[in-house]
Amino acid sequence: MPRVKSSATESKASRKAAAADTKKRTKRTKKDPNAPKRALSAYMMYSQANRDRVRKENPDATFGEIGKFLGAEWSKLSDDGKAPYIKKAEADKERYATEKAEYDAKKDSDESD
DNA sequence: GCGCTGATTGTTGGT
DNA sequence: ACCAACAATCAGCGC
Q1: Which of A13 and A66 is assigned the larger pLDDT?
Q2: How far does the CA of A46 sit from the C1' of C8, in Å?
Q3: What is the CATH number of domain A36-109?
Q4: Euclidean distance between CA atoms A47 and A69, whole angstroms
Q5: Cα dist. A77→A21, A43, A50, A57 in Å?
Q6: CA of A59 vs C1' of C10, distance in Å?
Q7: CA A33 to the chain's CA centroid
Q8: Residues 6 or more apart from A61 whose CB is under 8 A from it?
Q9: Which nucleotides of strand C lie under 7 Å from a protein CB?
Q10: What pLDDT is stored for residue A111 in this prediction?
């Protein structure tokens, strides 16, 4: 595996609990001028891929149910099952990296606009 | 160097 | 247009 454990950075499950306890988030203020919209997570890919299927199997289900269904199945999914989604997520991360690069380059060149 | 928190992504449906 | 649970993820700041 190319994934070599750097340290404890990802081991701790603190932030997830903290984030859940801290406060519900959604659209929060944007501080950066041209903030490079972060990449989509594997779950986002999963929602896009399954949103149609879930909606079809659960025509009555609305956002709430769909969300829970996707989350439940997502958790049930094995690493192999997530693999394709994670792969897309990684691809998106790369896209984000490109945006970040431009964002960084831009801010370095002209941040005042 | 590690630790946490904030910000962001996408879905739908209602107001 | 925004917000709600669902999960992930990263970048930036703090000590």
Answers
A1: A66
A2: 11
A3: 1.10.30.10
A4: 10
A5: 26, 11, 13, 18
A6: 35
A7: 21
A8: A54, A55, A69
A9: 2-12
A10: 44
Domain boundaries, chain A: 36-109
Q: Strand B closer than 7 Å to the CB of A14?
A: yes
CA A70, C1' C1: Å apart?
A: 25
* A5 pLDDT more than 60: no
Protein residue minimizing CA–C1' distance to B9: A40
Q: Which residue lies nearest C7, CA-to-C1' measured?
A: A43
What sign results for the dihedral spanned by CA atoms A69, A74, A77, A81? positive
Tell me how far apart the alpha carbons of residues A48 and A112 are, in angstroms, rounded to a whole number.
36
pTM for this prediction: 0.79
